[in-house]
Amino acid sequence: MEKKFELLKALSRCRVVDVETMENELGIPESVAMKCLSEKLIGRDNQKGKSVFLLTEKGEQYVKQEIPEIKQFYRGFVLEQDLELMRFYAKLNKNFRDSWITKDDFIVQFQLTGTVDGAYLNEQGDLVGIKVLNNNSTFKAVEKVEDFLLKANIPHINYVTYKTL
Fold this sequence. Notes:
Elements: H1 2-14, E1 16-18, H2 19-24, H3 30-38, E2 42-47, E3 50-55, H4 57-66, H5 79-91, H6 94-98, E4 101-102, H7 103-110, E5 118-121, E6 127-134, H8 139-152, E7 156-162
Parallel strand pairs: 6-7
Antiparallel strand pairs: 1-3, 2-3, 4-5, 5-6
Helix pairs in contact: 1-5
């Protein structure tokens, strides 16, 4: 049950996961995903030639009922960006992952766009933001993030980049 919840939390916070990240970084066997798939809590999709798992509507309802610490679901739209976010998230220790705040939580709280993609609490209790940018992101996009960091009182940030094709 614990691995099932870890998978559902990860998908709630980052939208997608590929099998390699799920197994190697999160430590969740594919059999757990297959069980969630049979329960229709997650779906499998082939996007841009990559097989990924995503939450279904039924899965979101299940998370709302069974994992109340999840307030907002991450709503990403760019597969490469969301996979980079998941890879970052998956490499964090469990305590950091458990303190994760989605960009959608920030949007609701601060009613601002241009937020970070997620954040977690470090050992000192400081928020550490994560922003995923592509290689075509502008300086203005970074300035917007830096402005949000000041408004949200987030003292630390990790920028992760990926290359667009």
